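Fold this complex.
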Amino acid sequence: MIVFDLSCEHGHRFEGWFGSSDDFAGQQARGLMSCPFCGSAAVSKAPMAPAVPAKGNATRNDSGLGAAAQVQALANRPMPPEVGEALARLAKAQKKALENSTWVGEKFAEQSRAMHYGEVDEKPIHGQASTEEAKGLIDEGIAIAPLPFPVAEPDKLN
Ligand SMILES: [Zn+2]
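Structure:
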């Protein structure tokens, strides 16, 4: 069985169950279908409801679903493959970037500052910093960047 969203010439929408796509076409050709609301035989497949309500069109409700149901349907869609791939690439890039980097944990701000002022040799590090610490580093012109993904502390991994 296959279900189609149908609409009549007056815009009534309803579902029709058919044995197959051909079955639908045959019944349509012979005028065997009729609208349950007005009896019109001018029945055709309803256009698919848009996945995202168009701008300026948000109050129109073509699909018979409420606005909340439309949002739900959208949220339940699987992640588009390109988003998944982009995230995977980003995660891989971070992993690679951190391979040669040393975890300094809460000493991140202190270490960054020490390297910036030439007190210790520069090397790639990553660690934790509070928002205040991060702001302070940026204010001092020290180049830091947030990691796109959280990193587990190495000594907490096992
Ligand atoms: Zn009708």
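The radius of gyration is 30 Å.
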